[in-house]
Give the backbone structure.
Amino acid sequence: MKGRLKSLCYILLIKKQTSFLVLASIYPSFMWLLLVQAYSPWWLENLVATPLIIVPLYFISPFIFYLSDSKKLFTGLFINLCIAISLNGNFFNSETSCIEGDRIFQFNMKYDESNLNLLAKFLIKQKYDFVALHEVSPIARKSLLYKLNPYYPYFISGINRQLSLETDQLILSSHALKNTKYQTYDGSSYLISMQWKLANELVEVMVLHPPSPRTERLWLKRNQTLYQLQRMIHQSIADRILIIGDLNISNHSARLKLITKNLISKHLNSWPNNSLIPQVFGYTIDQVWLSLPGSVCSKSIINTLDYSDHYAIETKISWSDKH
C-alpha cells in the first residue's frame, strides 16, 4: 500500500512538472497575442511587432521558477522558439500557378549610389510591369531615369515642384500611369497615388514609404501616412486597388490588419538583410496588398541585389478569375 501511494505521488509530481512546462511554454504566446493588439505607446507597438518577443517573454514568465533544472528550462526555451518561428515564418519564397499576371518589383535602396549600374541592368533585363523604389537619392534618381527611361517609358519621379515636394520614391512602369497625386502631411509626402492602365484593367495604385517609427514623433508621422492610406482605400470607387511600399510596420500589427482587412497579400520577411541575422528572424515590412478578385501568384527574394539592408522583392499578381 505504501509503495502504491509513493508511485501515485511520483506520477502526480511528474504530471505537475509537465503541466508547469506546458504553461511556461504557452503562456508567452498568449501574452504576445494579447500585446500585439496594442496601438500604443509607440515603443510597445514596436516591441511586439515580431513574435520573436515570445522568447524573452518566456524568461520573465511567472512559471519559469518551476523549471529549476536546465533540461526543463531548455525544453521550454526550444518550444517557445519553435512557436515564435512558426508565427514569424514568412521566409520561404511562395508560388502558385497563374495563367497570366503582372510582375512588381520593390526595393528600398538605402540611398545607395554605388550599385546603380547593377540595378539598372537588372531592371532592363527583367522588364517588370511596375517598379517601386524607396530611399532614392537625388543622384540615383537622375541616373536611373536616364538609364531606364527607354525601357520604362512611364514614370513618377517623386518630385512635385508645384507643391515644393521631393520624396525619396521613384516609380517606373511599362504601362501608362495617369492622375498622379501626392498626399501631403506636415510639408512632406510619403504616399503617392496614381492610376495604372493595363491592357484590360485600370488599377488604382498607392505607393508609400512612411517614416520608420524610431521615435514617437516618427511613429506619429508613420501612423498619419497609414491613416491617409486607409481613407483613400475607403473613398476609392475603383474595382482594382493595389498597394505597394516599405510600410515600416509589421504584417502582424493590429493597426495594419484593420487598414487592410478587405485586401489580400502574401508575406515574406524583407528586413533586415544582414548576413548575421537569418531571414527567419526578420520582419515583413516591404509589402504588396491588392483587392479581390486579385490574387498574389508568387513572392520571392532577389538575391542578386544584395547591397541594401532590405531584400529586393518580386511579386507576381493577377486580376484574372482563372488562377
User: Anything to note?
Assistant: Residues 2-35 form the longest helix (34 residues). The two ends are 69 Å apart (CA to CA).
